[in-house]
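Researcher: Next sequence.
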Amino acid sequence: MNNPLLWTPDPAQVAVSNMQRFLSFVRTTHSLDHIIDYESLYKWSIYDIDVFWKTLLDFSGIIYEGNTTPCRTGTTMPNVQFFPELRLNIAENLLRFRDTRTALISISESRDRVEISYEQLQREVKMLQSPLADLRLQPGDRVAGLLPNIAEAPVAMLAASSLGGTWTSCSPDFGTQGILDRFGQVKPRVLFAVNGYTHRGQAISCMEKLEAIAEAIPEIEKVVVLPLIDEIPTDSEQFPDRFISWESFRSDDDGSQLEFVRCSWNHPLYIMYSSGTTGTPKCIVHGAGGTLLQHFKELALHCDVQREDNITYLTTCGWMMWNWLVSALFLGSRVTTFDGFPAHPTLNRVWDLIEDEGITHFGTSPRYLAACRRRMHPAESHDLTDLRVMMSTGAPLLPEDFDYVYDKVKPNVQLSSISGGTDIISCFMLGNPMTPVFSGELQTIGLGMDVIAADSNGDPAIGEKGELVCRQPFISMPVGFWDDDDGAKYREAYFDVTPGVWYHGDFVTHTRSVGQSGGMIVYGRSDATLKPGGVRIGTAEIYRIVESHPAVADSIVVGQSWRGDIRIVLFVILEDEHVWNDELIDDLRKEIAAHATAKHVPSVIRKVNKIPYTLSGKKVELAVRDLLHGEEPRNVEALADPTALDCYRNLNI
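Model: Next structure:
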């Protein structure tokens, strides 16, 4: 494949990058003179994974105690545990800096800007740690957050994890049942929440929702309510003894030092949740050590986050990118949390943030970039001097969006389309300060991740579409699933196809040769792959063409069982100034045929008013497919707007 080259790293920047520092560390530590670039470093990292992960741990500066030998027990996934003799505490590591430099900048639609130094962060965490200790919070006890992406969210997480607590969180815009589907399974002892939040200028109360949660989960001993919206109350007539305001719960700052309970490397740090659009959400448990070391690798090496940098990601506390973002505290950088609708009051809102705060690392979604592509030229309207790295995840990033960034945003930025997920709380493919960016391609496979595109026999499929698989154990594999003592759910989720090989469920092409790190194209989820006439087509292949059409604002495409085969059905939202007619439908079909193949052309094209998305911004193709087959989707509470499915019901197609 000959995708256009868009960006080549500056050799001077490569020389001072964290990736180059690690490469030199490996060469010196192991006398490996043949490691001279990322390609040779990557090959070494998957050739001897035990030595790689041990070397990365030594390089990272992570605080721990115990013996690093053995590096792991077991050889075959999922029956592998890394560093079984080590103990550490995530909060001790994320709070290792104690100076006056800025740790957190909190930008919220609900209040004024908040800035907290690393020194202040210690005190804020201590004032929540003390009352949690008074409740006799024990290692493994669950503490939940129903919080927007504001500074208090990492403060509460750090306080809970400092005592060995297991943190789990949802965004407050989840529906009540969606929250209960998640928290109801893990039964937290403490719930940190807000009394309300602001969305597009409108204050929305959470108090009725919080009372319903407290009633349904009696194991919650305290609901600690932050008064984010002044005009909304924080107390509860129904549960006066269990509800308490944030200020009343916090202890006084008595100047005492934080305590850190060091637990095993695989101690459950986070409980994450699958989207829940095809059934009750799976509760995925991630270990403290593996999460921290993997995040260090990705943030420090692949994103080149340094102490003087400022990183932000457009995320909620219900998406793994929040956990990933918070780990940047380990690097001593500034972490900017953003709570609000990115396009309110205009699409300029986020670009203003990047300019005003001096953001160096900006993470977003393809959906936001696509919206900007049609309307904005940030390079002309904003000073983006500080911006060095852009990241995008949640869905495949179209080549047109790559072109937009380099044409209209900044020509000398590292654009990293990254891909992984909640399942691994990290990435399989991501950015790289040492290698070029090609249009439409994810820059590189992460160090230590033995990833290939596999054909139907499980062999590497170079230049052909295949399943994304990882062939060797990696540090951020889940500890397991909640309430899955025999591991059956865990094995079924990833290892059903080939025992010992992780099948991630993405449909991809690897554009380089076997064993090389670069060049991945993602076409969407395997379970949403279209198969007309038995030919596998990724949904992203059609989105690329359709959503570049000037008449189309958004779209969703699904496969419908039809007369013994599968036919493609496309739904589109029109831009306001365009008219829906047969001429437009014919034009869309011609564009798809001209830029793809006749197999890609939908049999049916319909106009709709809404496209269903999850709360983390992913299109819900399977729910639409279910409706076309006369089946009612489950867990619509997982959708950002459950009413978005209404226009797909009872369609006569």
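Model: The first strand starts at residue 5 and ends at 7. The chain has a mean pLDDT of 93.
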